[in-house]
Amino acid sequence: MNLKRKMFLSGLTVVVVALFVVAIALATPFKLQKANAAAIVKTAQTVSTTIITPTMNTITSTDGIAISNNGDMVLWITNNALTTVNVTITVPYEPIPGLDLVSDLSASIGAGESRAWGPFDPTYFNAASGTNKGQMIIKASDTASVTVAALTW
Predict the structure, then answer these.
(1) Strand runs labelled E in 54-92
(2) Is the previous residue joined to 97 through a cis bond, with omega within 30 degrees of 0?
(3) Closest CA to 65 of 147, 151, 121, 122
(4) 54 Cβ neighbours under 8 A, 6+ residues apart
(5) Nearest-CA neighbor of 41 among 69, 83, 73?
(6) What is the DSSP letter of 153?
(7) What is the pTM assigned to this prediction?
(8) What are the residue boundaries of the structural domains of the chain, listed by start?
(9) 118 and 70 in contact (C-beta within 8 Å)?
């Protein structure tokens, strides 16, 4: 085998390996779905130039509520309790050691207060499979006094 041919094959090998590495880097990372019980499914309301009255959904279960999330959704959360509560948006994937880029989001909401929160990237917050596929889960530390309206456009 002559020198030019060896150099060509060596160069070709380097290009193929480089393309393989790039393809792996751009591929969706492997995500292990968390085992979640079925949350109560609620519907987001669409906001437009027409005035709407937000539908407030009470988080009545420790499993939370599931709402379809298109990436443009904002939550309006009201705490009707006499104490501060924690509201959590769960990440539906088990953390991968060293690659836990996103974890559950939590916010404290004072007694009698309301807060807007969002939007939420569906890549990280929507379940990819299972009962709640395409939905994100919202949980609260008090399952009797927290209401949530999901607004999208």
Answers:
(1) 57-58, 65-68, 74-79, 85-89
(2) no
(3) 147
(4) 45, 76, 149, 151
(5) 69
(6) -
(7) 0.71
(8) 1-30, 32-152
(9) no
Average pLDDT on 134-141 reads 93
Residue type, 45: Q
Q: How far is CA 87 from CA 52, 62, 116, in A?
A: 24, 11, 12
Question: Both tokens of residue 144?
Answer: 């009797």
Tens-digit pLDDT profile for residues 30-70:
455 555 556 778 888 888 899 989 999 999 888 899 999 99
Q: How many CB atoms lie within 10 A of CB 25?
A: 8
Alpha-carbon Rg for the chain, nearest whole angstrom, is 22
State the Cα–Cα distance between residues 45 and 150, nearest whole angstrom: 6
